[in-house]
Each structure stands twice: as C-alpha cells, then as structure tokens.
From TrEMBL, chain A:
Primary site of residence: membrane
One of the record's GO cellular component terms: plasma membrane
Compartments where located: Cell membrane
Designated name of the protein: ABC transporter permease
InterPro entries, A to Z: BP-dependent_transpt_permease, MetI-like, MetI-like_sf
Family: Belongs to the binding-protein-dependent transport system permease family.
Entries under Pfam families matching the protein: BPD_transp_1
TM stretches of this protein: 33-55, 95-121, 133-152, 158-176, 214-238, 263-289
SUPFAM superfamilies membership: MetI-like
Keywords: Cell membrane, Membrane, Peptide transport, Protein transport, Transmembrane, Transmembrane helix, Transport
Keyword Ribosomal protein: no
TrEMBL record, chain B:
Biological processes per GO annotation: transmembrane transport
Mode of membrane association: Multi-pass membrane protein
Family: Belongs to the binding-protein-dependent transport system permease family.
PROSITE patterns: ABC_TM1 (PS50928)
Lineage start: Bacteria, Pseudomonadati, Pseudomonadota, Alphaproteobacteria, Acetobacterales
GO terms under cellular component: plasma membrane
Source organism per UniProt: Acidiphilium acidophilum
Transmembrane segments: 99-119, 131-155, 184-203, 242-264, 284-306
Residue ranges constituting the ABC transmembrane type-1 domain according to the UniProt record: 95-303
UniProt-recorded name of the protein: ABC transporter permease
Keyword Transmembrane: yes
Subcellular location: Cell membrane
Record's keyword annotation contains Hydrolase: no
InterPro entries reported for this sequence: BPD_transp_1_N, MetI-like, MetI-like_sf
C-alpha cells in the first residue's frame, strides 16, 4: 500500500528518501566506488603477478656495495641492509601475499557457508549446539591462535592457507547462519515448501539466491582480512617464511632498522598492504550499495 | 530479569568450559614440545624424556586434562619455562601495561567516534558524511603495524619528539608518570585512531537509522527543535548498540595488541604472548590464551547484560 | 460555528532528485470547524499524508508550498520556523499511525507526555507530571498514576494510541490531526478510538482532521468529508449528504467497493493510480472512469455545487441515482446447506504456542512454556465452498491456516479427501500437501524478490515434474491469463509490479498445482479498498470455474461476508460460533460475534440508492452474477 511519493516524505530533518531518479544518480556515484576498487585490484594483481615478468631484477641477488641506499636509477625503491633490490622484493612480496591470501579467503568462505547453512537448516537443537561451539571458538581471537600454531611449526605457504582458513571461518559462519535463519521463515519459503520444495531445494534455489549479495560482499571483505592477517603474521616473523618475501616481512625488516631512517623500506610495503585492503573494501562497499536496493 | 542474568551466566560458563578444553588440547596435544627449546636441539632423547616427566608432560592425556582443571581451579598456572617466574605474577605485570594502553585508546576512539558518527548520521548523503565515510574507509584499511612504524619513523626518528618504544626511558633512575605518559602517546594514538574507523561507522549508521524512525517525527510534531530531538531522544537510542560493540570487540583488541606492542616494544600481554610463542613457553601461552578467551566471554556477557539493562524492552520480557 | 482550520488553495510540490518538482497536492481547500470532524479520504498516493504534514510544516525543506493554511486567523504557511515550532504541539496536536513506532520505545510514557507540556507552558516537572496523569485518565487508561512510568511496549495497540492522543491533547490544542490512527488496529479497538475522539472533540470544542483511506470507518463520526484522488479534490461536503448519495464516480466506487451483506459483486476500479509524471491535464480519474468522455481528459471540470456535496465531475449530473436503483437481487438465502462432498475435515485441532526456551537449562531439557494457540477446533469444508474464519489478532486464525497447511505441528487430525495427514506415509505427504495451496497477506513477501515472475509461477510446475520448458511456459501464460494479467509480466521482477498485481500472481501460482483447496490468509489486508474488490471478485470467479474450496482467514468481516458460504468465529484460540454465513451475520448466537458484527460499520443491508448499484456501469469485472 505504498506509493513512492508518499513514502518519500516520512523522514524528517531533511533526509529525503530516494526516488527513482535519485537512486539512479547514486548508482552511478557508487559505481565510482566499485570501479575504483576494481581498477585498484587489477593494478595490484598485475603488479604482483605480472611484475616479475616485466621487471626482471632479482629479489634475491645481493649487491653488497649498494646496501641501504635510497631510491636511485638502478634501484627505484632502494636496497635493503644486504643490498637486495627493494622494488623486486616488493613485487615478490606481493606474489607471496596474494597466493596465500586469496586461496585462504576461498577456503574460509567455503567452510563458513557450509557450517552456517548446516546450522541454519538443522533442527533447532543441533543448531544450538553448533552455535555454542562456534561461540567458544570465536572467543579466541584468530590472530592469537594463528600465532600459537605458526610458532609451533614453521608453516609453508600451503600450511599457511590452511591455518588462515581454519581460524577465520567462524566469523563468516555466524553471519551466514544468522542470515539464513532470518530468511528461513519468510513467506515465499513457506509457499515453496507447500508446493513441494524440500529442505535442500529451498536452500539451494531460494535461500542462497537471496543471500547471494551478502555472500559476495563478505567474500570481498574476506580477501582484505586475509591480506591483513597474513601481513600481520609475517610482520611478527611467523607468516611467510624465507625464501619467500611478503610485505609484512619487509615492514619488519624496516622496523628493525628504523634508527637508520630507512623510509623506502617501510613506506612502499605498508602502502601496498593498505592499497590491497582498500581495494577489497572498495569493491565490497560498491557491491553493497549496488545490491542494497534489491533485497 | 534475574532469570535472564542466570541464563546468560550459565551459557557463558559453558562457553568458558569448552574454551578451556580447547586450549588444553592446543597446548598439550600438539607435537613437539618445549623440551627441545629448553634443552637445546642437541638434547638426548633420555634427557628429553626426563624433562617431560618432570614437567608432567609424559602422563597420559586424560590424566593431564584432569590435573589441568585441578590446577586451574586452584589458580595455579605454573611457572614460565623460560623466565622461571610464576605465570600469574608475570601475566599480572604485563597485563597492567596492556590495560593502560587500551583504556587510553578506547577513550580516544570513543570521543572521536561519537563526534564523527553524529555528524555522519545527521548529514547522511551530503558531503560531510561522504568525507567522513572516505576517512573511515582509509583508516580501516591501514594496518596497525604500518601506522605504528610510520609514527616511530617520523615522531621518533626523524623529528625526535617522542620516544621510539618501550614503556620507560631506561636511562632514567626514577621514571615518573610523565615519562610513562610520553611513552604511551604513540601507541595510544595508533590503536585509538584506527579504532575510530569501525566504531564511528557503527555509530554513524545507528544515528542515521534512528533519525529515520517514526518517533523522531512525533517529537518534531510536538514542537521540539531538531537539536533537542537529536540530543534528548536520538542520541540515547543510538548509543545503545555501541555498548554491545565495545563488549564484543574484546577479542579484536587483544589480537591487535600483539602487533602494536611488538612495534613499540611495549611490554604488554601481546608482546609476552609473541615472545612465549617463539620460545614455546607453554605455561605462559596457555595462561594468556585462557585469559584472553575468558575476557572475551566476560566481555560478551557484560555487553549482553548492559544491553539488557539499557533497553527497557528486554528488561521486562 | 467557528472555523479552526482552513486550507485555501494549498498546493505542495516535491523535488525528486534533479528533476522538476512533482505536484503532490493541487489546489486543495478544506475547512475544519471547532467541535467537528472533517474526514480527508484517499487511497495511497492521493496526497493525504502530505496534506497533514504540510499543515504542520514537517515536509522536507525542498518542498514548495503555495496557498494558505489558516489556523484560527493565522497563516501557518507564512510563519518562520521558530514561530511554527510554537504552533506544533501547542495549537495543533498530531496523532500518527502505528503508535508503537511513533513513540520513543526507551522513554517512559509519562515523560513523553510531560515533555510537550513543559515545552510549551514552561511549568515545573511536578506540574507536568500531574497533567500527564490527568490526560491518561481522560483518554480512558485505567490506573493512570501507575502507568505513567510504563514504557510504550507495555501497552496494547489500542492503549498506545490513546497515549498518543493524550500526548496530542497535552496543551489543549485547537486542532487535532489524526493520520490513519486506526489502520492496523482491530475493529473493536478502532471503534473505541473513534468514539474517544468524538467525545474529546465535543468536550474541548476541538477540530479534528481525520485522515484515512477507509470511508466506512468515518461514516458514523465525520461531519464533513473530503475525497482526494491523485492530489486533487474530487468531492467534498457534509457527511450526511455524502454518505446518502456520493456524486463523483470515484467516491461512488470507493463506497461501492466495500462489501456489504447480500451483495453479489463488488464495484472495483480497474487500472492504477496515474504516475505523477504522466498525469492527464484534465480530470485525473478519467483514465479509470467508466463514464469518461474525451472532454474529461483535456480540461479539469469546475466544481459543481448543485447537489448536497460539491464535486468535480462533468458528467455526474447525468448519472441519475434513482436510475441506479436497480436493486441487485440478494442471493437467495440457502434454505438448506447445499449437499457437497467433503473436501477437508478438521477434528479436535490444537496447537501450542512455540515459545523459545526462556532459559538455557530449559532449552537443554527440552521443556518449553506451554500455551495454547488453538484449542479443539473442528469443522468440515465442502467442495466448492468458501469457509470464512473470522477473528481479531491473537485469536489463532492464522495459526489455524498454518496447521491445515501442515506448516506447523498440531494435535488432532486434518483429513483430506478421507485420508488423515498424520496417518499418511511420508512419501504421500508431499503430493497431498500440493492439493492445499496458500495465498499470504503480503504479496511481495510471498515471492522471491530475485526471481522473475514467470519462474515464480512455473516453479510449482517444475517441482511437480513437468520437465518440458515449453509446457511450463504455456501453462504459465494460461495461468496469468486466468488472473487477468498479460504475459508481458513473465520477465518482470516482483518489485516492479503493484500490490494488487503481485497478489494476482500469487493466486496464479497457487492455482498451478491444481489444488482443490486454497487457504487465503488475509489476502487483501495490505491492499487498497478498490484493489481488494478486484481481487475478491477474481477469487469468486475462479472458485466458480474450478470448483475450488477456500478457507478465507480475515479480520475483515465485510470481506468475509462477501465471500463465505459458512463462517467460523475464533476468539482466544477457540471457535465460538460456526454456521451458515447469512445466519451468523444476521442472527449470531454468541455475544462476542454480536459485538464484532455491531462494530463493523459495513453492516447495513442493502439501502435503496446505495452506491453499490452502479457496478453495472463499470467495465470488465462488472458482470452481474447469475445467482
């Protein structure tokens, strides 16, 4: 019983709800967020994955005579304390960071959805049990657990992916479960059951479809979280191990030598982490705005 | 009402019990062990075995589990392998430092967030809100360890106005409060500023939602000024979710503390955890992990309870 | 008779985005006199809420307002904002729809009332509190002193609305504006609120501007009626003249769309409200009017003052009310119930309230607080019969529907074509459920917003095993046709169709599996009166064509009276009355039923000259039924 005009007036204080024309303008505006994020993401991906082919200097080669130099013609981002090319290391760092973060995000995503949906669609007592366990797991901050486990054994990249995935899924699982439960008793689900839809059919065809926007948005934010977590771990020396470099590791080196004022060892690496997380969040934000209307 | 409290308390205790069990398995059921760290890599198997018996690590797992609970309930958390001090004392000392850091940071973050969030909620979709939104996005994407390092680089190294780390100036005989305070500034700034991102976002959304509700229109129809409506009605309702968020952010805070304290060499709980993890000092690790977990559960409980108290709808259910 | 409020040529235009402002109200003039009630009537989109917000100037800053809003001599439109603030709450009191959200949920009721009193009189807290208590008593809230410190959610819906009225009265305003105050309230409660308002306005010589979409509610209480359509006034005048004989086709259709006892068909208005950007320059109702002629669309008709009411229609005088006196033959009262095969039988049905465990321990032990939502319900449903289930909120009628549909657990038996559901083997239950389908109250909520309409209707076909896409598409088109929608809809999403259209799609989907029985759970409650008529007519036609049985669940006795062959009345989970519709409605045995029926203003038998007779002139759906 609503007409867009009538509902347009209810919010006082000057906050007009949006009409069709305004929504279109906003869509374009928010597309800006999405586009910026995508462009940024493409650039970072290109930098990290294609970089080694375009800029062939080795990240491992030691140039003792040129140690700890600022940016110059030969070394655009300077050198580290044993004379390695910082720019090359930055590219290599990107590579390692991304090949761990992205699969970890995918793993987290998969585990979270399965657990969350299982909890939401099970009989109430199973759901309660699953959520209690989840609460207990969530009481331990992921980073703490990560630190604990990676101190135990030096993880290779594959183990890192597993570790990250296994410690991050609870957060997503809870979101998925809450959302699925909210959808579960909506009228259109009930109607579908009435003409023959079973539990799995309903989950697959309807619930997932309605949840798709939230899932996609969360997936993008997840990538950002993984990059952050991995960089943090590497910063502590517990993440990506030599011979691989990572941005976090570069930062750690920079911090250790900070008395020598080596801004070129700190700023670029930190910026890359910042930009990556920014890209993920911009994409998520842009998608959120796009999907927000069609709920 | 009493029922609700008891109910939540019991749930919290159960979560705690599960947590304690998980930590037990984490620390006792994993391969390796502290023996090699303590005795060195060249230790003979016999020496390792003897050490394990001494430390109580050779008994069957279930027995260790029972002893674990028994000790826990007595408050005996053991001795640090490395530093040979009682764990409780150790953790206690380091925890005070972390608390100092966090209380300062939360206060800073709260003040800034309420102001920014209010502005953002009221000017929704106009340029101030957009600017604040962009600011939040940027702050969110900045890693704490990056910002901390940059702070040290500029304020500490380049300009030399603030100390570069630690909690006191080691050269001073009697570091007084001012010295502590100077050392706290950068860490507090780091944690506090970055915390503004999430907190102000929540608050801004909360304010905006409240402004769209019907009772605001009713209040205006009574003749109140917009400002009166904002501060007398909306603010109170919008602040409520903030309390819950604060309570729920405990885990995040401790995770963050590891990174920040490492950057600043600040002797807090996170720093201790990191050091202990590197040297496999199990008693300390277990104690810290347990503490963090327990504080999280308590934080959640408090958040729930306070929310229940503040929202009259919950109170009378 | 002093005039409290006088709107003079009030027009409001709203800016939408960067485009030109849209006219929402066009040249409205109305008056409210002291001690009287003027009813401002219109459906959604008519601009009535804008009018109320325009009077107290709570429209967005970008709104353009022209004309005068005279409140006892002062033009409100010319005041500054700070002057206007003094008027709000002191000279004008407002009562909004939906009191639960219109009151601050975290502030005590006494404080909310005291606030407005203190604000305008500057009195002390003690005095304000005393005044609040006085007001609560005046609006009929028992134990006002204790209830001062209660929160809004501790009151029932009707009581909350009384609280809002108390708040509006705090400073003894000259004018009270009530914007749909009874929408969403139960019938009995709504009636009480209206009676309260009438008493208050007489006692305080206060003018009341009552805004509503439901003409029948104000029939007893309004002194003046003003009908709006698409932002323009179409008819206005004294209530008595209006209700005796409305002249404008739209007013007539509005009244005629309300179901009355013994009516064979409802008057419905085809088409939709015109899009504000594409309004005809002439009469805005013309595109939907049965009496239109080309001149109607080009120039807006001047108000005609010849009759009892003033109206804007060029042809109204030709519509001779006397000629419309072709009394529709009331349905021959069924002497004995028609012998029908039993499609459904329900015996001793009971349902417990599902309360989530209130404590963790209880949850673990599996014990729940037990309360009965339904107790010992039994009835039979014949083939082709429509059974109406009537009750107020909380009576358990929706629960009954869900139990029959097998959506919730229950005790007792539901027997479909001789077989009880609880006795059926698992494998048989699904196909059995297909034979009872459902139409919910909120049409858009009952469809997946991200699925196309064609897929929505075809889904039951798919699940029933029809593999060929071609066959499904053909059937979908056929179903759409049966409910009167074009196949253009197939590729649209539910969000882009109107409420009435969406509900028809829901009906089409329900028909897809060829059910014998359809449970209609408040199918028209969220629709406009005119759309409601359209839908009820459609349902009746479908039933006749297919021999469908209906269980019609509704709080609206009028709708039930139009559709049902037999009626069951529920109160507090029990069936208090059950019998043939005619009997239940005209001579109810149970006291509660009597109260319900008396409260429904629709309940007049056919009056000569009643508006309902013009239905013959309305196209498409107006086929007098062969009774």
């Amino acid at each position: 019983m609503s007409n867009s005009l009538a509902t347009a007036i209810t919010a006082p204080g000057g906050a007009l709800r949006r009409s069709a024309a305004e929504r279109a303008a906003m869509w374009l505006g928010d597309r800006g967020t999405l586009v910026t994020g995508l462009v940024l993401a493409v650039l970072i991906l290109g930098f990290s994955l294609l970089g080694p082919y375009l800029y062939t200097a080795s990240p491992y080669a030691i140039h003792g005579h040129h140690a700890l130099q600022g940016p110059s013609a030969t070394f655009p981002l300077g050198t580290d304390q044993i004379g390695r090319n910082e720019l090359a290391r930055l590219i290599a760092g990107g590579y390692a960071t991304l090949i761990v973060s992205i699969p970890a995000a995918i793993l987290t995503f998969g585990l979270g959805i399965v657990y969350g949906l299982a909890a939401a669609l099970s009989p109430s007592w199973i759901d309660k049990v699953l959520m209690r366990v989840l609460d207990a797991i969530l009481a331990l901050p992921g980073l703490v657990v990560l630190i604990f486990f990676s101190a135990l054994f030096q993880p290779g990249n594959f183990e890192l992916i597993l570790l990250l995935g296994l410690t991050s899924w609870p957060g997503l699982a809870r979101i998925v479960r809450n959302e699925a439960i909210a959808q579960r008793n909506r009228d259109f689900i009930l109607a579908t059951r009435q003409f023959g839809g079973g539990t799995w059919y309903v989950a697959r065809v309807h619930i997932l479809r309605v949840m798709a926007p939230i899932l996609v948005v969360n997936a993008t934010f997840l990538v950002g979280d993984m990059v952050l977590a991995l960089s943090g771990l590497s910063f502590l020396g517990l993440g990506v191990q030599p011979p691989y470099t990572s941005w976090g590791g570069l930062l750690q080196t920079g911090l250790n030598l900070i008395a020598l004022d080596p801004w070129w060892m700190i700023l670029p690496a930190g910026l890359m982490i910042f930009l990556s997380i920014m890209a993920a969040n911009l994409i998520g934000q842009g998608l959120l705005a796009r999907f927000g209307a069609a709920r | 009402m009493l029922r609700m409290i008891v109910n939540r308390l019991l749930t919290a205790l159960l979560s705690l019990a599960i947590l304690i069990t998980i930590v037990f398995f984490m620390t006792h059921a994993t391969p390796g062990g502290p023996a090699y760290s303590i005795l060195g890599q060249k230790a003979t198997p016999a020496a390792v075995h003897e050490l394990n018996v001494r430390l109580g690590l050779a008994a069957p797992l279930w027995k260790q589990y029972v002893i674990w609970w028994w000790h826990l309930l007595q408050g005996r958390l053991g001795y640090s392998y490395l530093l040979n001090r009682p764990v409780t004392q150790l953790v206690g000392d380091y925890m005070m430092n972390t608390l100092a850091l966090y209380i300062g940071a939360i206060l800073l973050a709260l003040i800034l967030s309420i102001g920014l969030g209010l502005l953002q909620g009221v000017t929704y979709e106009r340029w101030p809100a957009r600017v604040i939104g962009a600011l939040q996005l940027s702050l969110y994407a900045l890693p704490t360890f990056f910002v901390g390092t940059m702070f040290i680089l500029y304020f500490g190294v380049k300009w030399g106005v603030l100390p570069t780390g630690g909690i006191t100036n080691l050269r001073l005989e009697n570091p007084g409060l001012p010295d502590y305070a100077r050392h706290l500034i950068l860490p507090v700034l780091t944690v506090g500023l970055l915390g503004v991102a999430g907190l102000s976002r929540y608050f801004g959304t909360s304010v905006h939602e409240e402004l769209g509700k019907d009772y605001v229109r009713t209040a205006l129809a009574k003749g109140l000024t917009f400002r009166a409506v904002l501060f007398k009605h909306v603010l109170r309702n919008a602040l409520r979710p903030l309390v819950t968020i604060l309570g729920l952010s405990f885990p995040g805070i401790f995770a963050g503390s590891v990174l920040v304290e490492t950057v600043f060499n600040y002797p807090g709980l996170g720093y201790l955890l990191w050091r202990s993890a590197l040297s496999q000092d199990y008693p300390v690790i277990s104690a810290i992990v347990l503490l963090i977990g327990a504080l999280t559960v308590i934080g959640n409980l408090l958040a729930d309870l306070v929310n229940g108290l503040l929202d009259p709808r919950e109170r009378f259910e | 008779m002093s005039t409290v409020l006088s709107l003079e040529h009030l027009s409001v235009a709203l800016k939408r985005g960067r485009g030109r402002p849209i006219s929402v109200l066009d040249d409205i003039s109305l008056t409210v006199n002291a001690g009287e009630m003027t009813a401002l009537v219109g459906e959604s989109g008519s601009g009535k809420t804008i009018a109320s917000l325009g009077v107290i100037r709570l429209l967005p800053r970008s709104a353009e307002i022209t004309g005068k809003v005279m409140l006892a001599g002062t033009d409100l439109a010319a005041l500054t904002e700070s002057q206007m603030r003094k008027v709000r709450g002191r000279d004008i009191g407002m009562v909004f729809q939906n009191p639960l959200s219109a009151l601050n949920p975290t502030t005590r009721v006494g404080n909310q009332i005291a606030e407005v009193y203190r604000l305008h009189t500057g009195e002390s807290d003690r005095a304000a509190r005393a005044r609040a208590r006085e007001l609560l008593g005046e609006v009929g809230i028992p134990d006002p002193a204790e209830r001062l410190d209660d929160y809004p959610h501790q009151f029932s819906g009707g009581m909350r609305q009384r609280v809002m009225i108390a708040m509006a009265l705090a400073c003894s305003p000259k004018l009270l504006i009530a914007d749909e105050p009874t929408t969403g309230l139960d019938l009995l409660v709504a009636r009480q609120i209206l009676t309260l308002l009438s008493r208050l306005r007489r006692e305080h010589s206060m003018g009341v501007l009552f805004i509503t979409h439901d003409l029948s509610i104000v029939e007893e209480h309004a002194d003046q009626v003003h009908v709006l359509y698409a932002g323009k006034s179409v008819e206005w005048g004294g209530a008595r003249s209006f209700f005796a004989q409305p002249r404008h086709p739209y007013s007539q259709a509005l009244l005629g769309a309300v179901p009355r006892l013994g009516q064979a068909r409802l008057a419905s208005i085809p088409g939709n409200l015109p899009d504000p950007e594409s309004r005809p320059p002439g009469c805005r109702f013309a595109p939907r009017c049965a009496f239109r002629e080309p001149a109607c669309e080009t120039a807006y008709p001047a108000p005609d003052t010849t009759g009892g009411t003033i109206f804007a229609c060029r042809r109204a005088r030709e519509i001779n009310p006397a000629a419309l006196l072709d009394a529709v033959t009331p349905e021959a009262a069924p002497a004995a119930p028609v012998n029908r095969a039993t499609a459904l039988e329900v015996t001793a049905l009971g349902v417990d309230y599902e309360r989530t465990a209130t404590s963790f321990i209880q949850g673990v032990l599996g014990r729940k607080d037990k309360m009965r939502a339904l107790e010992d319900i039994s009835f039979t449903l014949g083939q082709g019969e429509c059974l109406g289930i009537v009750g107020q909120s909380g009576s358990g009628k929706s629960t009954l529907g869900r139990a029959v549909l097998q959506m919730i657990p229950y005790q007792g038996h539901v027997i479909l074509n001789g077989e009880a559901f609880d006795a059926m083997p698992r494998a048989q239950r699904k196909p059995a459920r297909r034979r009872i389908q459902v139409v919910f109250q909120d049409p858009k909520e009952s469809m997946n917003p991200r699925m196309r309409i064609g897929d929505i209707i075809a889904e039951p076909l798919k699940l029933a095993g029809i593999r060929s896409k071609r066959a499904r598409v053909d059937q979908t088109v056929a179903l759409l046709d049966r409910v009167g929608l074009s196949d253009r809809m197939i590729n649209l999403f539910p969000g882009s169709v109107s409420g009435g259209q969406a509900q028809r799609i829901a009906i089409a989907r329900a028909l897809a599996t060829n059910p014998g029985i359809i449970v209609l759970d408040e199918p028209t409650s969220s629709l406009d009166v005119s759309t409601q008529a359209l839908l009820l007519n459609l349902l009746k036609d479908l039933a006749r064509q297919d021999g469908l049985s209906y269980i019609l669940i509704s709080h609206d006795i009028a709708a039930v009276s139009y559709m049902a062959d037999r009626i069951a009345v529920l109160n507090g989970g029990r069936m208090v009355e059950f019998g043939a519709a005619q009997e239940v409605l005209t001579s109810p045995r149970n006291a509660y039923t009597r109260e319900l029926i008396a409260a429904s203003p629709h309940f007049r038998t056919n009056q000569p000259g009643g508006a309902l007779d013009i239905m013959e002139f309305l196209p498409s759906t107006a086929q007098p039924s062969a009774v």
